[in-house]
Amino acid sequence: MIEKQEILTNPSETSLAQTKLTGFNDYQEFLSFSKSLFQLNSEEYQGLFNVLLKLQSIGQDAIPTMRILKSNTDEHDCYELIRFMIQFDRMDMGDIQTMLSS
Description:
single chain; mainly alpha; 7 helices; disordered N terminus
């Protein structure tokens, strides 16, 4: 029981445990689908994948999320939003608190 609690409180271990997006058999399938929607560099696809994993952990499906991003924003805003989400995802809580308090 203690081991499970430690994993739940350590987000990096939780994200390692959850490495598959619902709707995709593997990363290559995700990559093919996301490339059909977005023109990103390889690091950005990996970053988007990581963001979608976190969103999936709170109940948001990857495929509808990507389709909404594509259809509800113009091209420039879509890429800026994706890059913002990736950057935000890479920040630790201390960075976020500092950013919000300034």
